[in-house]
Design a protein that fits this description.
Strand order of the largest sheet: 2-1-3-4
Largest sheet: 4 strands, parallel
Strand content: 5-15%
Radius of gyration: 15 Å
Number of helices: 7
Structural class: alpha/beta
Order of helices and strands: EHHEHHHEHEH
Length: 160
């Protein structure tokens, strides 16, 4: 399964916007269940650093060469997914971050996710997805555990 960078590393998030110490708690749950995670790169952190200001989708979209950078960063990730699939591993899908200018999947899709889904379509990789809701945090996991279970079941069914 692929995950947005900050699922495993909240240090990449804009300072003060972190919602967990280190990784999101559900990542630990996935790992304990034997689910391997492919961490997507964080183009926001790579291009602008950790001390960057909050920016919108439009602002990222307009940065010179930003979309090309996203494409270049994603290519090894797509290759990894294809290699794992060729070796018989199940690809369960992707977990993004709702309302992120780069990792949102629903609503205004983020720049990185636009490129990820386009490349998955070209490579004929399944596009099962889940988004971490804006309200999710280490202290408030709400109904996300049930959403995660449904996502995993869909992903397994799609690979059958």
């Amino acid at each position: 399964m692929a995950v947005s960078h900050c699922v495993l590393n909240q240090n990449a998030v804009i300072h003060g916007w972190e919602r967990a110490r280190g990784a999101f708690p559900f990542a630990i749950e996935l790992l304990s269940r034997g689910i391997a995670l492919i961490q997507l790169p964080c183009p926001e952190f790579i291009v602008l650093g950790g001390d960057r200001p909050p920016m919108t989708y439009e602002e990222y979209r307009e940065l010179p060469n930003y979309r090309q950078t996203c494409q270049e960063l994603l290519e090894p990730m797509i290759q990894q997914i294809q290699t794992y699939q060729a070796e018989g591993y199940q690809y369960l899908g992707i977990i993004g971050i709702n309302e992120s200018p780069n990792c949102s999947i629903t609503g205004q899709r983020g720049v990185l996710m636009e490129e990820f889904f386009a490349r998955c379509q070209q490579a004929q990789i399944g596009t099962n997805f889940l988004e971490v809701p804006t309200w999710y945090s280490e202290d408030d996991q709400g109904a996300f555990k049930e959403q995660l279970q449904e996502f995993l079941e869909r992903g397994a069914a799609n690979e059958q």
